[in-house]
Amino acid sequence: MSMANETIQLTTAQAIIRWLSNQFIDIEGEELRLCGGGFGIFGHGNVTCLGEALSAMREELPLYRGQNEQSMGFAAAGYAKQWLRQRFMFCTASAGPGTSNLLTSAALAHANRLPMLMLCGDTYVTRLPDPVLQQMENFGDPTFGVNDAFKPVVRYWDRITHPAQIIQSLPNAIATMLDPADCGPVFLGLPQDVQGWVYDYPALWFEKKVHRIRRQTPDAEEITDAVALLKTARKPIIIAGGGVQYSRAVAELTEFAETHQIPVVETIAGRANMVATHPLNIGPIGVTGSNSANAIAEQADVILAVGTRLQDFTTGSWTAFSKEARFISINAARHDASKHMSTPVVGDAKLALEALGADVKGYAAPETWVAEAKSHRADWDAYVAENVSPGNRPNSYAMAIGVVNALCDKRDRVVAAAGGLPAEVTANWRTLEQGTVDVEFGFSCMGYEISGAWGARIAQAQQEPDQDTIAFIGDGSYMMMNSDIYSSVLSKKKLIILVLDNGGFAVINKLQNNTGSESFNNLIADCPTIPEPFAVDFEAHARAQGAIAETVSNPTELGEAFTRAKAADKTTVICMSVDPYEGWTTEGHTWWECGTPHTSENADVRAAHKDWESSRPKQRKGV
Fold first, then answer.
1. Closest by CA position to 400, among listed 408, 546, 278
2. Considering the entire predicted model, what is its pTM?
3. Last residue of some domain: 189, 211, 233?
C-alpha cells in the first residue's frame, strides 16, 4: 500500500492534537512549532477525550494549568504579542460556563488582531442525553447554544459534528491565524461525543508542515497615488502603529523616516517602535499622548499611517488633526487602510515602505518643520522628567513608572492594561529598546495585566530567558483578576508585579469628577453601600499565592524593592499606595468624545457638558 492510501484510526480529539503538533513555522530560518502549547482547565466537555489526547502529547504541546478561563485567554494574547503573532497558544475549556468565560478573551484577541485557538466543549451531537448539565436550551432552535455567542468575536468559527470535518477546518483555522489581514482568534466547538468518535484519517495529513506568514505586495498604482500625495507635504508626519512590529518592519520604518526626515508619532499599540532618544521620535499621540506629538499632528498636512486601525484614542475621536489633512494608510487589512477617506495602500508594511521609499527618492520634509517637531519633543521630555521625579508630592503612577524605567534592563518587557496606567505608561515611559512595551488598550481589559504578563513571560523564556517581564497594575484590576500570580509561581515563570493602590477605580472617578459629578461608587471610600471602608493587604495576598511580596512607602523604597525583585528567582509583588486625586499626567491629552448629560439639575454637570462639547467643532466628519 502506498503512503497516499495509508490511514490512521484516531479519535477526533487525538487527531486534532497530533495534527497541531506537526505544524511548524519558519522564523528567520529557524523552524519552531507553530503552536507553543496551551492553557487548560478541564471539566466535563474536555477532560475525557481532549484531555486524554493532550496527556499523550504533553512534551510536544505543554499544557499550562489555568486558574480562570478568561485569564487563560489573556495569557494566550500576551504570548502571541511577545511572538509578534508568529506563534500562538490554544485554550481549552469545558462545556458551559468554562467556555463562556473565554468570551471576553476572544473579544480582546479580536480587537487586537491576535491569533488564539479555542478548543472548547460543546453539547452532544446526538442529543440523546439532552438537556445536559450546563446546557442552554433554545426552544426554537436546538442547534443554537452558548458557543454561538463567540461568532461576533472570532475570525473563524466552527462546530465539529463529524470527525472528518477537522481535515478542512484545522487548516482553515491556521490560515486565519497566520493571515496578516484577517488575523484573530479561532473557535472550534467540540461536542462531547464527537471528540471520542474514531475516523480513519489519511496518514499524509499528519506529515510535518512548515508555514510562513504571507507578505502581501502592495498594488503599484496605490503606491503611485501615495507617492504623489506625500510629495505635496510641507508638514508630514508618520503614525507608527502596532502593525509595524507585527510586520517586523521597525528597521524599514526608521530608515524611511530618517531618509525623508519625517517626524514619527506612536500609537498605544505602536509604543516601542522607536527608542525614546531617536531624534525623529516625537512621542505618543492622542488622548493618552504627548503635547509634542499632538502639537505636530494638529498642524500636519499629510499623515502616513502605518499599521494602525486609527482608533479614537489615537485620533482624539478625530479632533487631533486638521480637517484639511490628508491620510495615506498602509495596512495589510483593507478595512483599516480605507478609513476616513485615506489614500489606501493595502499590503505588508515592510514591503510598502520599501516601495514607497523607492518612488519618493529626493523628497525630504522641510528642515523648519523637523526642527519645530524636535523642539516640541524636547519640551515634552522636560515635562516627563519633572512628572516622574520624586519630590515633595504625593506618590503617583508617574513616579513609580519613572523608578522602574530608570532601573530596568533595556530588554525587559513592560505590561499594562485599562484603568489609569495605560495613559500613564504611554505618556511617561521612555522606550529603551524596540518591541518592549505592551499596553493593552485595544479592548481595554482590566485584569489583563498579570495574565498577559504570564503569557508574555512564557514566550519570553523561550526567547530571552534572562530578561524580566514587568506588570504595572492598579488595585481595581488586581481585585478583578490576580490568580495568575499563583500560575507564574507554579510554572516558575517569574514576573515582577507593581500593585499601585489608589483606593478603587480612581481614573473613572477622575472622569466622573471631570464631567461635573461628585465622586460616587468608584473609590472604596465613596461607596454608600460600604459602611466601613478598608484597604486590602495586597502583600499578604500575594504571599499567600507563593510570591515574594513587600510593601513600600515611597519611590525611594520602591527602587530598592525593584532592585531586589530583579535579583530574585521567582515572582515578586511590590505594593505602594498612590494618591487618587493628585499626580495624574495632566498634559498631552487630546479631546475624547464622551457621552455627557445634556441636561441635569447639577450646575457643575451642565457646565462640564458645555465645556466638553466646545471642542466638538474640531471633529472631522469622516473626510
1. 408
2. 0.97
3. 211
